Predict the structure.
Amino acid sequence: MSTRDRPLDTRDRLLLTAERLLGERGINGVSLREITREAGQRNASALHYHFGSRDGLIAAIFEKRMRLIDQDRVQLIAEMEADGRMDHVRGVAEAVVMPVAKFLWRDDSSTNYIRFLTEMFLSPDTNINDFVRGRFDNGLLRAFDLLKGLLPELPENVVRQRFVMMMRAGTFALADIDANRTRMAAAGRQFDVARALDTLVDMWVGGVSAPLKEQASKKSGQVAA
């Protein structure tokens, strides 16, 4: 290994260790010193050298993962356009969910990113938008624009709130799918990940397209009449 390669290896070890520990203990549940030690680095300033700060470290995790996720989302939407499926909410749901779900099929430690995301959503001190907006949100913005057009009966602010809520709920569901799979594997049983993902997409579609309370009440009244 050349000297030039070593900083990159050190950086990757720190980044992957941080992703795992922040996902296990929470965004503020582990110190930078602990991350450095867990990554096997004797130099206490290694993390500061590569990332500068906690925010710099978090930004690097998003850089590593979200760039590919965003590219996948843009590609899935382009395929929807090519296949003439622009009138399906399910296609939008798949474009949002599946690029993150792909981590479930990998044999490395990529699922740590899903748990890291859940902790980011839960932390009151960090905002994912600060790290993603304008850099890795092209696919999400396109998906939201499509959803607005597909749900004209709903106010835009309602569509936006549902979009965000289902995106976050979907991430927690992916973490739960991964945990269930791990538990069942330890017991010598198989977990049907594909079926779980189909169910998640079904729920995503239902969540964003459900009628408003007053709309549902009117329908209920009409049926009762």
Remarks:
- Confidence is low (pLDDT under 50) at residues 1-8.
- The longest helix spans residues 156-186.
- The two ends are 78 Å apart (CA to CA).
- The CA atoms of residues 15 and 61 lie 7 Å apart.
